[in-house]
Amino acid sequence: MTHANGKALDGKVVLVTGAGGGIGRALAIAMAASGARVVVNDIGASLTGDATGLNPGQQVVEEIRAAGGEAVHNGDSVADAAGAQRMVDLAVETFGRIDCVVNNAGILRDRIFHKMSLDDFDSVLKVHLYGAFHTSKAAALHFKEQGGGSFVHMTSTSGLIGNFGQANYAAAKLGVMALSKSIALDMQKFNVRSNCIAPFAWSRMTSSIPTETPEERARVERLKQMTPDKIAPLAIHLASDAAAGVSGQVFAVRNNEIFLMSQSRPLRSVHRSEGWTVESVASHAIPSLRASFFPLDRSGDVFCWDPV
């Protein structure tokens, strides 16, 4: 369902976090082009979350305005509950309402697990998981009162499947999936929807991939085809009224492919009427279930073909 001039997000007000570059920037610009008025949030930080002093979010606002769209910049951190509240307040004060929150802001602190510090873990959880909670909570009361709204959360196959050196990021991103499902369940009676996208896109978040061998360099060149703007059509749809029946789902976007990802359900069971002992678990339960064990896959093992 679109409005008279055919733009999917006409009349909508959208907050996009981490929108100074990469996927967030592409989404903010595309949503504005689709009729949305956009709050562009970005703290101007490096990949690890350290302030850079630059103001890329303001540059995105200027790009949107130059193209005839409406946008305003916010420089707060999603890791701060009061900052997240200010983002939502800015949307309501500037544009009169809030209709969609895109939880995109993120940082990386990759470390092999036994070398991961508390700060490495804590800082990543604070931005990705707590950040998604803070912005969603700030918008939830507005969504409830107006009888509708949409959350689009960025998750990752590093959490949904697995990856090396990313225990902090993976824990946060799988947490985001569970948060999204809980919001979808709790707020469905208010016509509020919540979905996840696991994006494959070349950005600062993937630019740390090693390029030491010809094979690695070739892979990176293929990854560079997966531009951030490829994520935009699905995100715009999920923010629009046309996605009224879509909630609690997890999608992935990989170049020109859109995937619906599985969610945890029982695979198989084994039963003994007399109950279990340690010995029968070892001799019966584990051998019976082993055929359905998951291998120690990484994301790249599951998505093992070239994007097209």
From TrEMBL:
Domain Ketoreductase intervals: 12-208
Entry superkingdom: Bacteria
One matching Pfam family: adh_short
InterPro entries associated with the record: KR_dom, NAD(P)-bd_dom_sf, Peroxisomal_Beta-Oxidation, Sc_DH/Rdtase_CS, SDR_fam
UniProt record similarity statement: Belongs to the short-chain dehydrogenases/reductases (SDR) family.
Protein's recorded name: SDR family oxidoreductase
Lineage: Bacteria, Pseudomonadati, Pseudomonadota, Betaproteobacteria, Burkholderiales
